[in-house]
Amino acid sequence: MASISIENIIKEFSGNKVLADLSLHIPDGAFYTLLGPSGCGKTTLLRCIAGFYETDGGRLLFDADDMTHVPTHRRDIGMVFQDYALFPDKTVFDNVAYGLRARGVAKPEIKQRVKQAIESVGLSNLAERYPAQMSGGQRQRVALARALVIRPRVLLMDEPLSNLDAKMRTQMRDVILDLVQEAHITTVFVTHDQEEALAMSDKIAIMDRGRIAQLGTPEDLYGMPVNAYVADFIGSANVIPVPVEPAQTPATAYYKLSGRRLEGVRAGERFDADNGILVARPEELSLLAPDPVAPNAVPGSVLRRQYLGFKTTYRIRLQDGPEIRVDQGKGHQTIDPHPGDSVQVLFPAQSRIISA
Ligand SMILES: Nc1ncnc2c1ncn2[C@@H]1O[C@H](COP(=O)(O)OP(=O)(O)OP(=O)(O)O)[C@@H](O)[C@H]1O
Ligand SMILES: [Mg+2]
User: Fold this and answer.
1) Cα–Cα distances in Å, from 290 out to 199, 240, 345?
2) Do residues 338 and 301 lie in contact, with contact meaning Cβ atoms separated by under 8 Å?
3) Mean pLDDT across the stretch 203-219?
4) More confident residue, 333 or 314
5) Which ligand is nearest to the Cα of residue 40, counting in written order?
6) Domain limits of the chain?
7) What's the Cα-to-Cα distance from 32 to each of 9, 156, 185, 215, rounded to whole Å?
8) Nearest protein Cα to ligand 1, atom 22
9) Which one of 34, 155, 241, 270 has the lowest number of neighbouring Cβ atoms within 10 Å?
10) Which CATH superfamily is domain 4-228 in?
């Protein structure tokens, strides 16, 4: 219902820059996720968008409206807080109805919309309970219903699924997406769970100490991380420093690993270093018998093998090199070695080398 433009926002706490000149544009109706380690500034950014914090520089726009100094109650936002922030003295029904009553919605409509919202989060039989009488996961769902029921211009959600069990978490992904897509609500979502981020987002912003390290679609971030920080944060990746030969062609990179010369792809915009970083996802690698010597493969030995049903995951010590992880999907296994066995690890020629 509105685009969000964050322009060069700065937020300091006692001289400590928690948001450092951060800019981000979120198109109308899009679902963007902030992902990053604890303390990187995700909650602070949401609170600045919501107006709970005055910023120390920069501008915030909803569409063309400058919201930088508009008070929270006039920003038309729905928010799910990290700690729920339910009214303890109100029932579930009254918690969810709060925003609609404040907006002066007619009684019969309130009843119908609240009932529907409570139903959508699976709490129909708990409408008359108080927060203290519910589990953390149930409270989280009340908070979700309360934010969604007002169909706000902008919806801000701070780890709204973190206290739910695995099954409810995946169910709630769909509930949230259905509701925000139907009402075309611009959403900023915070999670620690990268699978959740990949599954739900139009774009993900990976944050690093108050800045955005990379903004991209789930496919961009997974396939073309701009640096080792992003590569390691989204999906697990083997991140291995390697010497790289000076460029012969713009796209190809030859690098050394465990005494062998391998071919990879130069990724990222700038690439001038001879010292590169090889980024290889565990599922992109395969295992071969130790002989004969195969092109683009390096020798190593198996440290650990874990059978996980749909895949088997191996920890491999590369010869004169680091430990890496290799995943072999069920049905795509070439060999199935055990701890102590010698192997070769095949690195596809599409493996990415990024600048150190
Ligand atoms: N009100 C405050 N006063 C002082 N420092 C604060 C305040 N709020 C946050 N900070 C600091 O700002 C930094 C970012 O905090 P923030 O809560 O935004 O992190 P986060 O990314 O949401 O982390 P988490 O994933 O743990 O929720 C932290 O170092 C935190 O200690
Ligand atoms: Mg937080």
Assistant:
1) 38, 21, 9
2) no
3) 95
4) 314
5) 1
6) 4-228, 237-355
7) 17, 10, 11, 10
8) 43
9) 270
10) P-loop containing nucleotide triphosphate hydrolases (3.40.50.300)
Which of the pair, 271 or 238, is modelled with greater confidence?
238
Q: Which ligand is nearest to the CA of 36?
A: 1
Q: Please name the CATH architecture into which domain 237-355 falls.
A: Beta Barrel (2.40)
How far, in Å, from the CA of 62 to the mean position of ligand 1? 24
Position 273 pLDDT exceeds 70: no
Whether 118 and 93 have beta carbons less than 8 Å apart is answered as yes
Nearest-atom index, ligand 1, CA of 44? 18
In 3D, which of 216, 197, 336, 350 has the Cα closest to residue 280? 350
Protein residue with least CA distance to atom 28, ligand 1: 39
Question: Are the C-beta atoms of 256 and 296 separated by less than 8 Å?
Answer: no
Give the closest residue (by CA) to ligand 1 atom 30. Answer: 39
CB-CB contact of 263 with 253 (8 Å): yes
> Which residues surround ligand 1 with Cβ inside 6 Å?
13, 18, 36, 38-44, 82
Considering every ligand atom shown, identify the ligand nearest to the alpha carbon of residue 210 and give its number. 1
